[in-house]
Amino acid sequence: MLMYHHVTPAGGAINVTPEHFRDQLAWLRDHGYRSLSCDEFAAHLAGTPAPARSVLITFDDGYLDNYVHAWPLLREYGFHAVIFLVTSWIGDGPARACAGEGGAALPETPDHAECMRRVAAGDAAGIALRWAEIERMRAGGVCEFHSHTHTHTRWDKQAGDKNARMADELAQSRACLARHLGEVSDHLCWPQGYFDPDYVRVAQAAGFRHLYTTRAFGRNRPGSDPASIFRFAVRDTSGASVGRRIRVAAHPLVAPAFNAWKRWKRGQRYAG
Predict the structure, then answer these.
(1) Which of 25, 29, 171, 190 has its CA 20 to 30 A from that of 57?
(2) What predicted TM-score, i.e. pTM, was given to this entire model?
């Protein structure tokens, strides 16, 4: 399960350059991998066999660069991606230019830190997707879109009833997706990776069954809990490097040992 945020020439901590994204997709294609849809992945968890070399490619938040730089490369290499939208960030207006479509100047696609600065300043319009762009990405079947809540807020860090706030977030997100896309699924990605047992119950009561985390050290196998879906963050690195990580994650003997060691190592770090 691959987790991305940005594909942008800006590079940086949780950004992947278009050159590295191309190399990663080329590695997947050249080694016989295919990408799953959320429905196919849900069927895999429920016990329907998926092809041995399968990945789910996910993007969090819904940044403009997903359209400008990632979408054209996904189309070129024949891969499908899942984008979790922070619905209050998504704006109206015409679709902007994207890579590979002539001489039009491409819009700015800043790095993650700058995107967060603009969101905090109430200026998501320049860095997030528009509904017209989402429709273009959906139309060819390359991308599908699901909930990442409405505002991406850590309500556990705010005053008030966090569970009631989260319930409202999910209701607003579902209404927004239904209004603009004509449908809403049972797939939800937690904002900033945070969740607790209360949030899981709130999400399930709202109609969400498949809950995506930022936890990397576990396996999504048939019979696994759909309320705790593991993903690992893809770095700004070569396709071969990502390929090694995928092979570790898929190995029936290496993966459990690797995940146990990483969880122990993380526990030691926090204990210290």
Answers:
(1) 171
(2) 0.95
